[in-house]
Write a structure and sequence with these properties.
403 residues
């Protein structure tokens, strides 16, 4: 493992994750409480962050494979900082409206398409392929630690200074990320193969991602997961902030519980992989998600609503922490380097598009039939995602963590 380069990359990811965790609390408060958005508008704001993945993802993947990945990540971080900064400026000048917020988040999502494709494709150039699960677990631990502290601080900042100022913290974190990535020393050449037609390169990446015996069912199950998760998080903000009347600080503590559980899960991920095998570790985790949202579903009907809500988010975090390092390891290990940008971008494109669809559907349905039926549907989709993966060849794959 190239420790110096990876350490700088790790620090950049940690700072960015910390800022993102603050925004995870501040954005729903800004939308629901400050701007007084309707359920449909809440869904639109959630979808705006994901829609660019569906529009730009296939093209971004091709260019990430053509360009230097460090430079792509730097410019993507700067773009995200400017997009979030625009929200703060609009609020400070007293003109911020929902449609302006949607436009800013569309820009933020567009830069994120390139940023995430470059991030996931750069890591295999920093560490050996057999170290990918461990490296991803370390990144997940840092991300989980940020999510543990960030929401608590975010809730406090929102209560003290207001949601838009808290979002400014995330904007600054992306600028710091850009500076740190600029100092990463790694062999990062442009693609040496002759450039072909754009659609030819897109087709090559799609065929690899969706004809692979192990990666294809993993991709399909993950797509279903994102559909459910996009809907779940949209309803969660309405349920917690409006129905249960949680304060911004208490809402932040929900994400702190998620982050703390994610930290525990990420710390356990290599050991779980050695015990169960990477494939079964992912499948085991997928079955925890319907349980988590079943707890959220029944929470408002009981006198222990808050404990159930916190437990549900903790179960979600624990499962995500265990699962992610193994899932990322499979993709990064099985995919040739020259296809990493495309497969990562295509997969994330489909994931985020379905998350946008889930967010929009949840916003519409929550306004029409209420939060409980939507959460019931979410629980069913999470369960179907687990079933799809349980029947796949992944259950027989051990992965690097078990070797």
């Amino acid at each position: 493992m190239k420790t110096g380069a990876f350490a700088r990359y790790w620090a950049a990811a940690a700072i960015s994750s910390f800022g993102t965790a603050v925004t995870a609390v501040a954005m729903p408060v800004l939308v629901v409480q400050v701007l007084g958005a309707s359920p449909l508008q809440v869904g639109l704001v959630s979808a705006a962050q994901f829609l660019p993945y569906g529009l730009l993802g296939p093209f971004a993947g091709v260019y990430v494979d053509r360009w230097r990945r460090t430079q792509t990540l730097i410019w993507a971080s700067v773009g995200r900082a400017l997009s979030l900064g625009a929200i703060v400026v609009l609020w400070l000048t007293g003109v911020l409206q929902i449609w302006m917020l949607v436009l800013a988040l569309l820009a933020f999502g567009s830069f994120s398409v390139f940023g995430f494709a470059a991030t996931q494709s750069l890591l295999p150039r920093l560490v050996r392929r057999e170290d990918l699960v461990t490296a991803n677990a370390r990144l997940d631990q840092t991300d989980a630690a940020a999510q543990t502290l960030g929401p608590t601080l975010g809730g406090g900042l929102v209560g003290l200074l207001g949601a838009p100022i808290a979002i400014a913290v995330d904007a600054v974190s992306y600028l710091i990320e850009a500076v740190l990535v600029a100092g990463v020393k790694v062999t990062d050449p442009r693609a040496s193969a002759p450039r072909r037609k754009l659609w030819t390169e897109i087709g090559e990446g799609l065929r690899f991602a969706y004809r692979h015996p192990t990666l294809t069912p993993l991709a399909v199950s993950t797509h279903m997961w994102f559909l459910a998760n996009g809907a779940a998080l949209t309803v969660l903000s309405l349920l917690a902030l409006r129905t249960l009347g949680l304060s911004p600080f208490a809402f932040g503590l929900l994400f702190t519980a998620f982050g703390l559980a994610s930290l525990v899960g990420a710390s356990l991920a290599p050991a779980v992989g050695r015990r169960l095998g990477s494939g079964r570790a992912v499948i085991f985790s997928r079955w925890a998600y319907p349980l988590a949202w079943l707890l959220v579903l029944v929470a408002p009907t009981t006198p222990i609503a808050l404990p159930l809500l916190f437990t549900g988010l903790a179960v979600q975090g624990l499962a995500a922490g265990v699962e992610n390092a193994h899932e990322m390891g499979f993709w990064q290990r099985e995919t040739p380097d020259e296809l990493l940008g495309r497969t990562n971008a295509f997969r994330r494109s489909a994931n985020r598009t379905l998350a946008a669809v889930g967010a929009l559907l949840a916003g519409v349905l929550a306004g029409a039939v209420g939060e409980a039926p939507v959460l019931a549907g979410v629980t069913v989709v999470f369960a179907l995602a687990a079933v799809a993966l349980s029947l796949s060849p992944l259950r027989h794959r051990s992965g690097a963590a078990a070797e």
